[in-house]
Write a structure and sequence with these properties.
The structure holds two protein chains of two kinds. By secondary structure, chain A is an alpha/beta fold. Chain A has a domain at 408-417 and 451-617: Rossmann fold, CATH 3.40.50.300. Chain A is built from 21 helices and ten strands. Chain A has helices at residues 3-13, 26-29, 49-61, 64-97, 103-148, 152-157, 160-202, 204-251, 253-258, 262-314, 320-361, 420-427, 450-455, 471-475, 484-493, 497-502, 520-533, 550-563, 576-579, 599-605, 608-617, and strands at 381-391, 394-404, 409-414, 435-440, 443-444, 457-460, 538-542, 568-572, 584-589, 592-597. The longest helix of chain A is centred in the middle third of the chain and has 53 residues, at 262-314. By secondary structure, chain B is an alpha/beta fold. Among the domains of chain B are: 1-146, ABC transporter transmembrane region fold; 324-379; 381-461 and 572-610, 3-Layer(aba) Sandwich (Rossmann fold); 464-540, Rossmann fold (3-Layer(aba) Sandwich), CATH 3.40.50; 623-677, no CATH class. Chain B has helices spanning 2-6, 9-41, 52-99, 104-110, 112-154, 156-203, 205-210, 214-267, 272-313, 324-328, 332-338, 343-359, 362-379, 425-430, 455-460, 476-481, 489-498, 502-507, 525-538, 555-568, 581-584, 604-610, 612-622, 625-633, 641-649, 654-673, and strands at residues 384-392, 400-409, 414-419, 440-445, 448-449, 462-465, 543-547, 573-577, 589-594, 597-602. In chain B, helix 6 packs parallel to helix 9. The longest helix of chain B is centred in the middle third of the chain and has 54 residues, at 214-267. The chains are: A alpha/beta, B alpha/beta. At the A-B interface, helix 1, helix 2, helix 4, helix 5 and helix 7 of A face helix 2, helix 3, helix 5, helix 6 and helix 7 of B.
């Protein structure tokens, strides 16, 4: 339900008590970063509420002092809010009774209570702000820490958008709920408890009658919100679909234009948009009817109390003053129930969100065990009868057996899907093998400290990853201690120094998100420079120069020869010219090694490599 | 904005009317309630004797009024929603339609991310704003105005309290809002930062792990997170002060009303009941002020969104339709000139046009025209000419990307374009379908300036396969059908076969019905490229452009693809941007682009003799080709003496050979397992 509406409903229902409303102006608190439709709340049921709540409570336990302080302040506020109307009516009584002399005393007391209320409200707001922010900060940090340490396998098999939305939407939901609902619930529960106590104490018969209102409220809320839920759910599905269409078509705009598909795309969009509007109108109307209906119910409750109270009073069961008090309490009773009913949905959503966040946190971390270091390692890599499959039953590598000598340049060639990149994934321990062994200098890589293994191995991937930071930071990413001279040397070797110098800010140019302001080729050059700066023992280039023209590539290769003199390099490339002077070429086909040898030998063999080579150079293309 | 509201003026008018009804009932209700309490229950006017009858009759009336008010409220909601959501829908559709008509220089300028938020978030903001204004604004004015009137009618002296408290609250609100507003945009930035660090770590996880930068990233994220939390806390802190201070003002006024009321009661001017009512109205008025504060804040945010939408809506497409054939059809001469190369073909069809024009409506002329173009296209279309073309990116540094390009590509010709990274290859082909417009000079397709075509007509002649294959989240079939909506299964399969995609599509359990997951993540780079090539082939256009669209294909697949192109797409003009000379060696001509100019353009053999750059590229790629040609294929070498020298350089040192041989035994197992030919 939209919060504006809540505000409106509360406002009219509690106008007479507004002086003590300790609610914060919610719409203004709403953070602009909140994604998702405003005012829509699709209640999502968490699967295991207890477990999630227990974990969530742990986060509160870190902030025990604050929680305690907050509770204290809330209790004071509740007491004040129960006491203040009494003072107010007392003051009016004085006026009614004509005891004007006693008035200043009451007024001063009122001022004191109001002062305490204001002070407590301030403390409460500050405390809950800090509390929620600290909890959310911790939650975000822990989630990020886990995500960074997740195995690649998890990230490869789960949609990135989903992982992202846990960090943005779900954490935000938890944050919003924590900051808004904690004090509301506590004060609501306390108020209800206090009021119920007072009501039963004053007249249990009337108290029971008041319950009719509560039951009515609950029934109507359940009925309406059930209806609303289906429509809000439909609406948020449509909204997701609409946003998806926009995102897809705007990012793929070039294709849309190339195929003159604008009209169809717009037509599809309009269909979804119209449907969204239709569902949205119904959902909002249903949601909007909640306030007026509640208003009617509350007034029915009021009439019931007034009528039966009057009847009881006539029979001498209760005093007239009790009725007056009852009316105030009945009102006070209704407010928190409404509020909690409305919060209930929000809390459910938040718990469901927290559950998703915790689901990631429960994922096992990447196995990085191993104690051997690679100090003084030569970089001899041996694959021994390695079998591997990403998905059980779909084997990718079969009995892969290969020795790479220190300082050698070894190339992997083969068709798409033959398993070349998989070899890199295994060597970097991005994935663990099914059987067999991979050794570096005779040590199983499982026994090598994973961080040390990776620190000594630099890789350049086909899909270049750059960060939205300066070029300098991006280059030095591989080696934080590198000096500027070393950085420039690496940039020169990778042929990007000149290109960087041409940029207005040089090395301090900030790359836009994922380096979109550079061409694909330039981005590859930067990532090669970054790998060079790492000064690794093993260098892996996975289609690293596919978007670089061949002349530039030649320069880079010349530089690499110098750089990799006593190091091992593993190169994957489609272009055979890239790997012709490799010391050793491995031809892969459907996960098996079908040929090995250097260029001349393989040509002489007239096997698979020769076939590939002939196709490339025969000029039969086109 | 009014333009959009105009359509729904009826709803926009009805909603406030109903709101007035609802608010009136709300104003009425406290009076009835106090009557029930005062007269019915407490019996103030009857010396303490309650009147149950009065309670019941007034109670039923009150419930009736409240129910009526509720009905009005619901109706107001109905009309307010009909108005605001239809309004939002129209605006959303218009915005999206406008985006779909923008040229690339404009979408580049906006950036895709910002366009997406504009269509989604900003529209929702404005829509909410409209709904809020229709409902909240009027409601508040009613309640506040009514409250003030009622209060004054009770006793003028109460007005003094309102007169003091009102401006005070207003100042408070303005002060806090103005303090907090700048932080909202800051907050958005901080939030973006956290999200972008997160995004980079999710998508770039391999690099993070490869360089063992988990701790570094944690710190980077920690910093961004801290900044976000700090900003958020600042906002929350400001708001924390706002509520209590406003409450104090409110409560002081209540005390003042009681105090003043006491004097007035003493004077006999008002009754105690009036004082109670005054307190109720006072809270109502001052609450209204707070509500206004929120509404105004939403307005300022909504206006910011509106400005962002306006920016898009006001954007005139930089590249718009040319006059098109249909418009020119009347001026027969002009059409004749424009299509001169095809004059022979024209005669018959022009007659057809005339007949159709006489028989049918004017609309039909256009249809027949299009028919003519496609029929003539199959025979002779696809001639491209660049005349003194220069180009610089409109929003770029002004650096010239292409300079004085002159080039003619004949129908059916295969032209390959070769050149270094960033030399302007893509920019050159981007000018043909008018993805961008030439800064100087003109580009002609079939003898007519591309600017004179209707865009759809021009782009229907051209099929482009892009380097970055953009696929959409539907089935493979749906994706391919983009090329030709009414293609038959045979055509579909043929296109997939030619693009070397059929095999892998068949290997999927669901074949053509396989759903391409989010941004094609379920497919490998090569597979995506082949799908995007199939799509282009299916279009059966006169001009086929491959913008480095085979970069992820392995050599065999690429060669097979080009084989298929050569045999099945003979009459089509093919422009192929590539990196590998071998891929393009067989092209009719190869244009070598260097620093935005055409350094050479000739068949392979000729380039090998005349172009130094070409030789250089050739050397970098094919240094060993000569030996291969001579020893293995026995063909006459095309390479030059320099190439020979290069080839000799690459002879390995003996020791490496020894090592390589030494490895052979280890390979036995691997080889044994392999399927040898």
């Amino acid at each position: 339900m939209s919060e504006e509406r809540n505000g409106g409903v509360n406002q009219e229902q509690n106008a007479s008590q507004a002086s003590l409303q300790n609610q914060q102006p919610r719409p203004a608190m709403r953070m602009p970063g909140m994604r998702g439709p405003r005012g829509v709340q699709v209640v999502e049921k968490p699967k295991d509420v207890r477990k999630t709540m227990q974990r969530l409570v742990k986060y509160f336990q870190y902030e025990k002092g604050m929680v305690f302080g907050l509770l204290l302040v809330v209790v004071i506020l509740v007491v004040c809010s129960v006491y203040a109307p009494k003072l107010q009516s007392e003051a009016i009584d004085r006026i009614t009774e004509g005891k004007f002399g006693a008035l200043p005393g009451v007024l001063i007391l009122m001022l004191v209570v109001y002062g305490i209320t204001a002070l407590c409200t301030l403390i409460q707001s500050l405390l809950s702000a800090h509390l929620s922010q600290r909890i959310v900060k911790r939650l975000r940090e822990e989630l990020f820490e886990r995500i960074v340490n997740l195995p690649i396998k998890y990230l490869d098999t789960h949609p990135h958008g989903d992982i992202m939305s846990r960090m943005t939407n779900d954490v935000e939901n938890v944050s919003l709920t924590v900051s808004q609902s904690l004090s509301s619930i506590v004060s609501g529960v306390l108020t209800i408890a206090g009021t119920v106590f007072m009501m039963v104490y004053l007249c249990w018969q009337l108290a029971i009658l008041s319950c009719i209102t509560v039951v009515l409220t609950l029934v109507v809320t359940k009925f309406l919100s059930g209806k609303m839920r289906t429509f809000f759910r439909k609406r948020s599905a449509l909204l997701g679909q609409l946003n998806g269409t926009v995102e897809e078509m705007v990012t793929g705009y070039k294709t849309v234009v190339a195929y003159s598909h604008q009209d169809q795309v717009v037509e599809d969009f309009e269909k979804t948009s119209n449907e969204l509007t239709r569902v949205g109108i119904i959902a909002e109307i249903l949601g909007g009817s909640m306030g007026p209906v509640m208003n009617v119910i509350n007034n029915i409750g009021f009439v019931i109390i007034a009528a039966f109270g009057g009847y009881f009073a006539l029979n001498g069961l209760i005093s007239i003053g009790t009725i007056s008090a009852f009316i105030v309490y009945a009102k006070q009773f209704g407010r928190p129930i409404n509020e909690i009913a409305q919060l209930y949905g929000q809390i459910q959503t938040a718990v469901a969100g927290a559950e998703r966040v915790f689901a990631i946190m429960e994922e096992p971390k990447e196995d990085k065990s191993g104690s051997h270091t690679m100090d003084g390692a030569k970089g001899v890599i041996s694959f021994r009868h390695v079998n591997f499959s990403y998905v059980p039953g779909k084997q990718i590598l079969y009995d892969f057996d290969l020795d790479v000598y220190a300082g050698h340049k070894v190339a992997l060639v083969g068709a798409t899907g033959s398993g070349k990149t998989t070899v890199v994934n295994l060597l970097m321990r991005f994935y663990d093998i099914d059987s067999g062994e991979i050794q570096i200098d005779g040590v199983n890589i499982k026994d090598i400290d994973c961080n040390d293994l990776r620190r000594n191995t630099a890789i350049v991937l086909q899909d270049t990853v750059l960060f939205s930071d300066t070029i300098r930071s991006n280059l030095k990413y591989s080696n934080l201690e590198a000096s500027d001279e070393q950085m420039i040397a690496a940039a020169q070797m990778s042929n990007c120094h000149k290109m960087i110098r041409r940029l207005a800010e040089g090395y301090d140019t900030v790359l836009t998100e994922s380096g979109q302001n550079l061409s694909q080729g330039q981005r590859q050059l930067l990532s090669i420079g970054r790998a060079f700066l790492a000064d690794p023992k093993i260098l892996i280039l996975d289609e690293a120069t596919s978007s670089v023209d061949t002349r530039t590539e030649k320069h880079i290769q010349d530089a690499m020869v110098k750089l990799m003199k006593d190091r091992t390099s593993l190169i994957i490339a489609h272009r055979l010219s890239t790997i012709q002077d490799a010391d050793f070429i491995v031809v892969l086909d459907q996960g098996r090694i079908v040929e090995t040898g250097n260029h001349e030998e393989l040509i002489a063999k007239r096997g698979r490599y020769f076939e590939l080579y002939r196709r490339q150079f025969e000029g039969n293309a086109i | 904005m009014l333009k959009y509201l105009k359509k729904y003026w009826f709803f926009a008018l009805l909603a406030p009317l109903f709101m007035i009804g609802e608010a009136s009932m709300d104003l009425l209700q406290p009076r009835l309630m106090s009557r029930i309490v005062d007269d019915g229950v407490l019996g103030l006017n009857h010396g303490g004797a309650g009147d149950l009858n009065l309670v019941l009759t007034t109670g039923v009336r009150m419930i009736g009024f409240v129910a009526l008010g509720g009905f009005f409220g619901v109706m107001c909601g109905v009309f307010a929603n009909l108005c605001s959501q239809n309004f939002g829908n129209d605006m959303r559709k218009d915005t999206f339609r406008k985006i779909m008509s923008l040229s690339f220089q404009q979408t580049d300028q906006f950036s895709t991310g910002s366009l997406i938020t504009r269509v989604t978030n900003d529209i929702t903001q404005i829509q909410n704003l409209v709904a809020q204004i229709i409902r909240g604004f009027i409601r508040n004015i009613m309640l506040m105005g009514g409250g003030i009137v009622c209060m004054m009618s009770l006793d003028l002296s109460f007005g003094a309290v309102v007169a003091c408290a009102f401006p005070l609250l207003l100042v408070c609100v303005v002060f806090f809002i103005s303090r907090v507003n700048p932080f909202f945009s800051l907050l958005q930035k901080k939030l973006d930062r956290v999200n972008s660090v997160m995004q980079e770590n999710v998508t770039g996880s391999r690099v993070v792990k490869a360089y063992v930068r988990e701790e570094y990233e944690k710190k980077r994220f920690g910093d961004a997170n801290q900044e976000l939390v700090d900003t958020q806390l600042r906002i929350l802190t400001i708001f924390s002060y706002m509520t209590p201070i406003m409450n104090i003002v409110l409560n002081l006024s209540v005390v003042a009303v009681i105090r003043i009321g006491a004097f007035r009661v003493q004077e006999g001017a008002v009754t105690p009941g009036n004082v109670m009512a005054a307190i109720t109205y006072l809270s109502q008025i001052l609450n209204g002020v707070m509500m206004f504060a929120m509404i105004f804040q939403n307005i300022s945010r909504g206006m910011a969104s509106y400005r962002r939408i306006r920016e898009v809506l006001d954007c005139e497409p930089a590249i718009a339709d040319g006059a098109g054939v249909a418009d020119k059809a009347g001026a027969g001469d002009e059409t004749g000139i424009a299509d001169k190369p095809d004059a022979g073909d024209l005669i018959g069809t022009v007659d057809g046009t005339d007949i159709a024009g006489k028989i049918g409506s004017v609309d039909k002329v256009g249809i027949v025209d299009e028919g003519r173009i496609s029929s003539e296209g199959k025979k002779k279309g696809g001639r491209i000419e660049f005349r003194n073309v220069s180009f610089a990116y409109p929003n770029g540094s002004g650096e010239t990307v292409l300079e004085n390009i002159n080039l003619t590509i004949e129908p059916g010709e295969t032209l390959a374009i070769l050149g270094a990274t960033g030399s302007g290859k893509s920019s050159l082909v981007n000018l043909i379908p008018r993805f961008y417009d030439a800064t100087e000079g003109e580009v002609l397709v079939d003898g007519r300036n591309v600017k004179d075509y209707r865009l759809k007509e021009l782009r229907d002649k051209i099929a482009v396969a892009l380097q970055k294959s953009e696929l959409f989240g539907t089935t493979i079939r749906e994706n391919l059908l983009w090329g030709k909506g009414d293609a038959s299964q045979e055509e579909l399969e043929q296109a997939a076969r030619d693009a070397q995609a059929e095999e892998f599509i068949r290997s999927k359990p669901e074949g053509f019905e396989t759903v391409v997951a989010e941004k094609g993540m379920s497919l490998s780079g090569g597979q995506k490229q082949r799908l995007s090539i199939s799509r282009a082939l299916l279009k059966k256009a006169e001009i086929l452009i491959f913008d480095d669209s085979t970069s992820a294909l392995d050599l065999k697949t690429e060669a097979d693809l080009y084989d298929a192109l050569r045999t099945h797409y003979k009459g089509v003009t093919k422009i192929i941007i590539a990196q590998r000379i071998a891929s393009v060696k067989g092209a009719d001509r190869i244009a070598v682009i260097d620093n935005g100019t055409i350094a050479a353009c000739a068949p392979h053999a000729q380039l090998m003799e005349t172009s130094e750059i070409y030789q250089d590229i050739y050397k970098s790629q094919l240094k060993a080709e000569k030996e291969l040609d001579m020893e293995v294929l026995g063909e006459a070498p095309v390479g030059e003496p320099e190439v020979k020298a290069q080839a000799e350089e690459s002879v390995r040192e003996p020791e490496i050979k020894v090592q390589a041989e030494a490895q052979a035994p280890d390979m036995r197992n691997g080889e044994g397992g392999g399927d040898h030919e």
